[in-house]
Amino acid sequence: MGGQRIQIFKRFQEIQSRSNALRKEGKIIAFVPTMGYLHDGHLALLREGRKRGDDLILSIFVNPTQFGPGEDLDAYPRSFERDAELAKKIGVDAIFAPAADALYGSHFQTYVSLEKLPNHLCGLSRPVHFRGVATVVTKLFNIVKPHVAIFGQKDFQQLAVIRQMVQDLNLDIEIVGMPTVREADGLAMSSRNAYLNSTERKAALCLYQALRQAQADVQKGETEADTLVTRATDLIRSHPEARIDYIAVCDPDTLGDVKHLKGTALMALAVFVGKTRLIDNMLLQH
Ligand code: AMP
To answer: Is 162 in the pocket of ligand 1 (CB under 6 A)?
Structure first.
């Protein structure tokens, strides 16, 4: 499949029946869930999906349950026509783009929440976020019925949450993680980069610089997480536009803090640049 016609679905019942029919024909369904405003990071996931599935489904849904009060749900950038054009070029077969209130009825009360992984990193400053993510991804999996679903490592904690959820709930779906796609200067691509003015865009590079500095320090033999975090903090604080939410060095499986590096650790950080909260991460190989 792939190519000429792209089917667009707003109602979940229709794409669910389509997936049931494809499964009966023995087709492999690949799925890439997104919030839209597509960039090259999303497109890399779609290209991988195109390779892995006979049928490739993209969802575009700015999921209200993963935004907390005061976050950017209403401001989140949207560009459906452009997204559909890009998807068509890659060979997406179908887009599922439900209306904001279509996935949650007024009596909605069933959530998926993990006990441990959300108690670290972004989960600490965004308390309802991963419950919203796990819930919407479960719903989308039940609607789209994919054999394989593709996620980005840029949202490392999200990927960990989804892998754990799939294992815990015996979901019969292969989860594929793809490397972070970056701008030429190293800034991780994100739909939220659209919020940055030109001064902020320059300052935003400090996330990547802090990660690269930590990686270089570890390669030179640094093993103390505190030292790595202090150096990253100093680098980021040298930019007046930047305000640190967190910087952590953690175990890539449990996401729990690591004090002394042995083997591979993850450095993850969230930084407000102006009003925009950006995240990035890098594996530090000791
Ligand atoms: P979002 O639209 O931000 O919810 O992201 C949808 C998917 O794209 C998630 O699996 C993200 O991890 C992934 N993604 C976002 N940015 C990037 C990037 N720069 N490189 C690779 N994947 C990304």
So the answer is: no
Residue labelled with tokens 């670290």 = 120
Q: What b/e readout covers 95-118, taking b as 16+ CB neighbours within 10 angstroms? A: bbbbeeeebbeeeeeeebebeebb
pLDDT-flagged residues of the chain (< 50) = 2-3
Question: How many angstroms separate the alpha carbon of residue 107 from the centre of ligand 1?
Answer: 30
| Cα-only R_g, the chain | 19
The enclosing H or E element of 20 equals: helix 12-24
The predicted pLDDT at position 2 comes to 46
Quick: pLDDT tens for 157-214. 999 999 999 999 999 999 999 999 999 999 999 999 999 999 999 999 999 999 999 9
DSSP SS3 for 285: strand
pLDDT computed for residue 4 by the predictor? 65
Q: Which of 42, 120, 129, 239 is catalytic?
A: 42
42 is catalytic: yes
Q: Is the pTM of this model over 0.90?
A: yes
Contact 218, 285 (CB under 8 A): yes
- CA dist 35 → 23, 32, 190, 214, 285 (Å): 26, 10, 11, 31, 32
User: What whole-number distance in Å separates Cα of residue 157 and Cα of residue 3?
Assistant: 33
Is the shortest distance between the CB of 152 and ligand 1 below 6 Å? yes
Q: What is the pLDDT of residue 123?
A: 97
